[in-house]
Amino acid sequence: MPRITYIDAAGTERTVEAQAGATVMEAAIRNGVPGIDAECGGACACATCHVYVDEAWVARVGEPGPMEEDMLDFASEVKPNSRLSCQIKLSDALDGLIVRTPAHQG
Ligand code: FES
């Protein structure tokens, strides 16, 4: 069971246990983690599940796909480590992952 830590814009940390195969977005919603709206339910069509991947994890999480890149244009304050959390699938290799949620979605 991969553990993920979400850090919000105010610096509050929340660590949850996720199911392998779930996405970073799904794990947040299921565990009541605030800061991820996920209006489209994970279809890569809303950009309201924007997160910043911790620098130490960027290489392991990987680059966004072309569809995600396009959708990230609709997110605000996009940075090089921005990802849409519905497009990050969890596995045991991502146990310990840290992501930060932006102050605002959309
Ligand atoms: S939940 Fe809509 S793009 Fe991720």
TrEMBL record:
Domain 2Fe-2S ferredoxin-type per the UniProt entry, residue ranges: 2-105
Record Pfam families: Fer2
Obligatory cofactor(s): [2Fe-2S] cluster
GO biological process: P450-containing electron transport chain
Top-level taxon in the UniProt lineage: Bacteria
Name of protein: 2Fe-2S ferredoxin
Thylakoid keyword on record: no
Signal peptide interval: none
InterPro entries with a match to the protein in the record: 2Fe-2S_ferredoxin-like_sf (IPR036010), 2Fe-2S_ferredoxin-type (IPR001041), Adrenodoxin-like (IPR001055), Adrenodoxin_Fe-S_BS (IPR018298), Beta-grasp_dom_sf (IPR012675)
Keywords, alphabetical: 2Fe-2S, Iron, Iron-sulfur, Metal-binding
Organism: Ancylobacter tetraedralis
Family membership: Belongs to the adrenodoxin/putidaredoxin family.
Annotated GO CC locations: cytosol
Classification via PROSITE patterns: 2FE2S_FER_2 (PS51085), ADX (PS00814)
GO-annotated molecular function: 2 iron, 2 sulfur cluster binding; electron transfer activity; metal ion binding
Record PANTHER family: FERREDOXIN-2, MITOCHONDRIAL, FERREDOXIN/ADRENODOXIN
